[in-house]
Amino acid sequence: MKRDNLSDSQEKVPDYDHTSSGAGIYSEEVSEGSSFSSSGPTEIQVVKELIPSEKPKLGESTEETDRPSEIILVGTAHVSEKSVREVNETIERERPDIVAVELCRPRYEAIKGNVKNADIPVKELLKEGKVYFYLVHMLLAHIQKKFADEMGVQPGAEMISAIEAAEANGAQVLLIDRDVQVTLQRFWSKMGFVEKLKMLGGLIAAVLGIGGTQEIDMDTITNQDMVSMLVEEFRDSSPNAVKVLIDERDAYMANNLVRAAVGGNKKIVAVVGAGHRAGIQKYLENPKTIPSTNYAVEAPKKKFNIMKLFGVVVVAIAIGTFALLILSGVPLETLAIAFGWWFIINGVLSAAGAIIARGHPYSVLTAFSVAWLTSLNPMMAAGWFAGLTEAKYRSPTTDDFKELVEIETTSDMMQNNLFRVVMVAALANLGSMIGTFLGVYVMLQVTGIDPQEMIRNGISAGLAVLGMG
Fold first, then answer.
1. Among 310, 322, 386, which residue's Cα sits nearest to residue 350?
2. Among 444, 245, 213, which Cα is nearest to 345's?
3. Distances (CA, A) of 261 to 11, 14, 218, 283
4. 7 - beta bridge partners?
5. Which residues of 369-403 are buried (b: 16+ CB within 10 A; e: fewer)?
6. Which residue has the higher pLDDT, 375 or 277?
7. Where is this chain compositionally biased, Basic and acidic residues type (predicted)?
8. First to last CA, the chain
9. Do the strands 267-273 and 98-101 form a parallel or antiparallel pair, or are they unpaired?
10. Using CB atoms within 10 A of its CB, is residue 144 exposed (0-12), middle (13-18) or buried (19+)?
11. Is the per-residue pLDDT at 438 higher than 90?
12. pLDDT averaged over every residue in the chain
């Protein structure tokens, strides 16, 4: 496809403002030819004067310029052969000027096979939070691929089919979805700590095939009532996540469709997931209700982070223990023994995490060497250093990311360089965290110090130093 025949909605600025438009720009009535279906065919047609045609110039015929733009929504299941057929049939029958697809630029490039093999920026991946986005993305893609294999359909086949049909018919392809990384970051930031644990646990269980499975009737998965039921069920358990995954993107995609319809005289076929169909239709019926989407195209700013707080608490416990040992008058020889146990316990447990993740020997050695120090600094983590070392000797590339989606066994997954870097970082951090608590306990046991007595002596010594004793 020529680049001129592809349009990315995110490149269109400034944003179209529906709230400040003149009152007469929209028609509040739906034409008689409109038809809406909540449980019938997947295809629904929105024939409505969303935006009026441009006024004709003198001497021009008004037959064409007075025709309002027409938008046809096709709701699909992302792993359904039936959806692929309906997309092809709709585009072939309607011969649209524009085929809008539920894709962003990165997903489009990936689906077209335009992603070049390159080293993954591991430093960015290991930054706080980034590793979780990659992990969630990998697990979701892996689950969808397994489901698609069972159904005998390529993931995103209906989007590929829509793009190919648009190319064959000379239609323009419009990418209307929000950048997937922005969506993932907003999704993760909106979820609570418990919700994150539940989601990760559920995804990992699904990847490993743990738990019961449910037969899904692909003939009814695109039925509006079923999709609404599934969305509403998720909305009850994680309403903020649904707002990001569904509601925000409904508004974002509807906004891009309305902008594409500006001027009239256009026929647009929009291929979207069945879960988005009702929300987009609602906005198209009354474009004035589309909220501003400026907030939805940026990753959220970092707010209070419970994991940061937990890390600070862990460090405070470790430093506080050493401080109390010193203030309580413990001999230097005893302090040296206590520190030795601290070093060994932190190092061994962090290194054990790297070993379980099948890390490189140098990654294991790195985890052992830095664990004691990172436990005393909330701005550092043993896993970061171990992960960077792992990436140095087993550099992950985009090929590893692609292969990870195809992997079917846990053993093969552990051989994947990208997954191994993530696991080395995660398990080395976990080992170091456990080592901090265990190290404090062992130090007190080895030195024979009563914690309560140590605290009393430490407080008394501290007050004496301050002249308050």
1. 386
2. 444
3. 17, 16, 32, 14
4. 174
5. bbbbebbeebeebbbbbbbbbbbeebebeeebbeb
6. 277
7. 1-18, 51-67
8. 81
9. parallel
10. middle
11. no
12. 71
DSSP string, 259-316: HHTTBS--EEEEEEEHHHHHHHHHHHH-GGGPPP-GGGGSPPPP---HHHHHHHHHHH
- Calculate the dihedral angle through the C-alpha atoms of 119, 123, 126, 131, rounding to the nearest 10 degrees: -40
The SS3 of residue 78 is coil
The token pair at 257 is: 């469709």
Residues 215, 102: Cα–Cα separation, whole Å: 26
Give residue 435's pLDDT: 87
Give the residue carrying structure tokens 């290991």.
126
Q: Is 358 helix (H, G, I), strand (E, B) or coil?
A: coil
Report in angstroms the alpha-carbon separations of 67 from 26, 49, 263, 395: 14, 9, 9, 56
Residue where the block lists tokens 């707002």: 243
Please name the helix (run of DSSP H) or strand (run of DSSP E) that holds residue 7, with its range, or none.
Answer: strand 6-8
Distance CA(10)–CA(12), nearest Å, equals 5
What beta strand segments (E) does 39-103 contain? 43-46, 70-76, 98-101
Angle between helical axes of 248-260 and 274-285 (0-180°, round to 10) = 60
φ, ψ for residue 6, nearest 5 deg: -120, 130
Which phi and psi angles does 338 have, rounded to 5°? -60, -45
* Residue 347 near residue 368, CB atoms below 8 Å: yes
Cβ pair 257, 195 in contact under 8 A: no
Question: Is pLDDT of 244 > 70?
Answer: yes
Q: How far apart are CA 350 and CA 464, in angstroms?
A: 38
Largest CA distance in the chain: 102
Which helix (H) or strand (E) segment holds residue 172: the answer is strand 172-175
Per-residue burial over 259-287, b if 16 or more Cβ lie within 10 Å, else e, is bbbeebebbbbbbbbbbbbbbbbebbbeb
Collapsing DSSP to helix, strand or coil, 180 comes out as helix
pTM greater than 0.90 = no
**Structure tokens, 210:** 């743990």
Tokens, residue 108: 């489009």
Q: Using CA atoms, how far apart are residues 103 and 87, in angstroms rounded to an integer?
A: 15
**Of residues 426 and 347, which shows the higher confidence score?**
347
DSSP 190: H
- One-letter identity of residue 9: S
Written as one letter, the residue type at 231 is V
Residue with tokens 């995609």: 253
Rounded to whole angstroms, how far apart are CA atoms 323 and 70? 73
